[in-house]
Amino acid sequence: MQFPALRRAGLAILRKRPKFVLRTPAGTSSSAGKGKGGEAMFEIGKAYFFRTVTYHLVGEVVRQEGNFIELKDASWVADSGRFSDAIKKGTLDEVEPVGTAYINMDSVTDAFPWEHPLPKEPQ
Length: 123
Hints:
By secondary structure, the chain is mainly β. The protein has helices at about 5-10, 85-90; strands at about 10-15, 20-25, 45-50, 55-65, 70-80, 95-105, 110-115. It has two helices and seven strands.
């Protein structure tokens, strides 16, 4: 598959099963957490609630490397309670702070901006 505009910009698209991955020039970030057009979807310094295929985490994005995002002040959310209340009000039924956490972006099903203080104590 040819993409002349990307080639002129020094970028290449590689076909990897089951998705396309944007390869950027050496020294720049990969496709993890990238949105349409390759722009970063998750802003460094902002907190998000991530749902993966097996668990939920909330934390502040510190950096992105390869297919992983590093979170600080992260917490494992065992039970979010009513999900709309968790996102809108920041109320979580069961949560355990874990400190630093790393998320493989291939396992993320969705994510939401977290506009509340991050949990500091187990609940």
